[in-house]
Design a protein that fits this description.
Blueprint: E1 2-8, H1 11-30, E2 34-37, E3 44-52, H2 58-70, E4 75-85, E5 94-99, H3 105-118, E6 132-140, H4 146-149, E7 155-159, E8 161-168, E9 175-183
Antiparallel strand pairs: 1-3, 1-8, 2-6, 4-5, 4-7, 5-6, 8-9
Helix pairs in contact: 2-3
């Protein structure tokens, strides 16, 4: 199983993100970018990528994740900043929007979840965590002025749980399966 922990969107947030994608799509086309858009049902914020994990480890992992998630309260992210990973000057592969604060409460939760998962999955990705939503994968780069033309979005999303997801890779793109929800049970921050 190829697993990751994510913040999942409700339908209102998915709709708002899809509307923003519609606006961005026109601009990227005007600047001759070729991209593969993320289907609305696949939009999420990856918190921790676990990679391949043997199914027998799931019950122990789930119990630990439930305890960790329960110590954090509901929080809100404000997605405003369109951008690329890596930045434009280094052949971008991903078009995204990120949280304007670039962290805050979710950074603390990410660190705790990373620590929890690290007890069972020793080789976790240790890259700095940037809360973002991947809107598209870049197939061919176009004009670099595109970033100046992309309007910021303003999508506020409260999150009340973390989701354990399985990623099934297919020729048409990944299929995500929501395996388990871990409610946030600490004091709310919104």
């Amino acid at each position: 199983m190829r697993l990751f922990l994510a913040l999942d969107f409700d339908e209102a947030a998915r709709t708002a993100l899809t509307l923003y994608v519609g606006e961005a799509e026109k601009i990227l086309e005007d600047f001759r970018w070729k991209v593969r858009w993320t289907p609305p049902q696949n939009l999420h914020v990856t918190v921790v990528f676990l990679g391949e994990l043997a199914p027998p480890l799931l019950p122990v992992l789930s119990a630990s994740l439930r305890t960790t998630a329960n110590s954090y309260g509901v929080f809100e992210l404000h997605f405003t900043l369109p951008g690329f990973f890596p930045p434009l000057r280094r052949r971008p592969r991903v078009f995204h929007v990120q949280d304007e604060e670039r962290g805050g409460s979710v950074q603390h939760m990410h660190s705790a979840l990373l620590s929890t998962c690290g007890r069972l999955v020793p080789a976790l990705d240790q890259k700095p965590f940037v809360p973002h939503v991947t809107l598209a994968r870049i197939l061919r780069e176009g004009g670099p002025q595109v970033l100046e033309q992309l309007a910021p979005c303003s999508i506020r999303v409260p999150f009340s749980h973390v989701v354990l997801m399985d990623s099934e890779l297919t020729p048409k793109g990944p299929l995500y399966h929501r395996l388990e929800h871990f409610p946030l049970g600490g004091p709310n921050e919104v």
